[in-house]
Every structure is written in C-alpha cells, then in structure tokens.
Amino acid sequence: LAKTTQPISMDSYEGQEVNITCSHNNIATNDYITWYQQFPSQGPRFIIQGYKTKVTNEVASLFIPADRKSSTLSLPRVSLSDTAVYYCLVGDLGNTPLVFGKGTRLSVIA
Amino acid sequence: SAVISQKPSRDICQRGTSLTIQCQVDSQVTMMFWYRQQPGQSLTLIATANQGSEATYESGFVIDKFPISRPNLTFSTLTVSNMSPEDSSIYLCSAAGVLNTEAFFGQGTRLTVV
After folding, report:
1. Is the pLDDT of residue A33 over 70?
2. A-B contacts at Cβ under 8 angstroms
3. pLDDT tens, residue by residue, B57-113
4. How far is Cα of residue B65 from the mean position of the Cα atoms in its chain?
5. Chain A partners within 8 Å of B42 (Cβ)
C-alpha cells in the first residue's frame, strides 16, 4: 500500500478556502485516492475519491496531477463545523482494508 | 450507504477481564474491519473479519488477544481478552462493499481498563 504524507495540522479562518495536500510518491497504477473526515468521538466519514484529474462533489474537490504522486483536497468556504482531522488514503478498490496515515488536523477559527 | 451500530459505546473494565464489542450493519456488506484508535492518534487496523472463516490479523495483533467472529454478512464481534491498561483505546468497526469504494464506520467503543 502506498504511503502518504500530509501536514500534521492547518489553521484557517471561516469563509476561506482550505487546500490540504497529500504526497503519495509510490502510488500504484491500480490505486485510487480517497479522503476521509473525522470529528472527535466519531468514526471517519468518506468525503471524496478520485483516480486522476479533478473530482468535485457537494462537499469538496479533489485535484490530482497527471503524475498522481500527490493530491489536494479543497474545502470551499470552510466553517467552524469543518474543524476535524482529514485523512488521505491510497489503495486499490479490491478486497484490501483501508490503512490510515497520521492525517491533518484542521482548525477553523472564527 | 450503510449504518453501523456498535455496542457498547463505552465501558470501564477491570484488568484481566474480557470485553466483547458488537458491530451490526443495517445492510449486507462484503468486508468488515476492526480498528483501534488511541486518543489524538490515527486509526490502526487490527484485523479483517472474514465471513465464515478466521479473521486476518495485522502485524502485532493475534487471535488469542483479539478473537473476532463474523457469523453473517451484517454482524461481527471483537473481543479484547485478558485486558490490561494498555488496551484502553477506542475500538472502531468498519464495513465496505465489494469494491471498497466507500467504507463506513461505527461511532466506536471507548474502552478504559483500570
């Protein structure tokens, strides 16, 4: 499974766009990139998943360059409720379990 | 989507005893997993719960300490055996479909061993 590297923490003010970058230099051809969000005292929650280029849903956008060695999760106009830990995971979609890295602790400030 | 219910949500246990955590999914899923999470830390995979066969354990976790059952496609249990204070942690159940596109997690069981 490809190892991921993310910033340990980030701070942002409400209303700003937040971009969290994840490095995965040894990503394999069959690997997808998936981001999860975890609030205190809750299990992680799926945010977005992609293979290449750009993916957008109602919550976030995911940007993946052509070499796929990194990816950027973009959260538009964050609010206080977006304060959470964000995990970047890389792996294929077969019968393999998710392996979590250290994640990025995002603190949104009023 | 799938909704996962874990029981108990929390417990305080005496060292040397065992606790069984139950995980119920509201729909049939292909894969179920058990994780452990220390406060402020990331999730560590304990094992994959295989339906009808022995669980697949990750390095550092053994069946004698963490026996797992999965009698059907919607239910699994994790037992933490012969507990010590080092077993104090949050234990999370997870489930996913055949392509593992999106995994769902329970709220976790907060275990304190005294």
Report:
1. yes
2. 57
3. 999 999 999 999 999 999 999 999 999 999 999 999 999 876 667 889 999 999 999
4. 13
5. 87, 100-103
Chain B residues with CB under 8 Å of A102 CB are 42
What type of residue sits at position A92? D
> How does DSSP assign B78-99, residue by residue?
EEE-S--GGG-EEEEEEEE-TT
Contacts of B51 (CB under 8 A, 6+ apart): B32, B70, B71, B72, B73
CB-based contact B45 A44, cutoff 8 Å: no
pLDDT tens digits, one per residue of A34-50: 999 999 989 999 999 99
Q: What angle do CA B69, B73, B79 make, to 5 degrees?
A: 20
The whole-angstrom separation of Cα A99 and Cα B26 is 24
**Interface mutation vs chain B, best among A41, A57, A89, A90, most B CBs within 10 Å:** A41
Q: Out of B42, B45, B101, whose CB is closest to A102?
A: B42
Closest by Cα among A79, A73, A20 to A50: A73
Per CB-CB distance under 8 Å, the chain B contacts of A42 are 105, 107-108
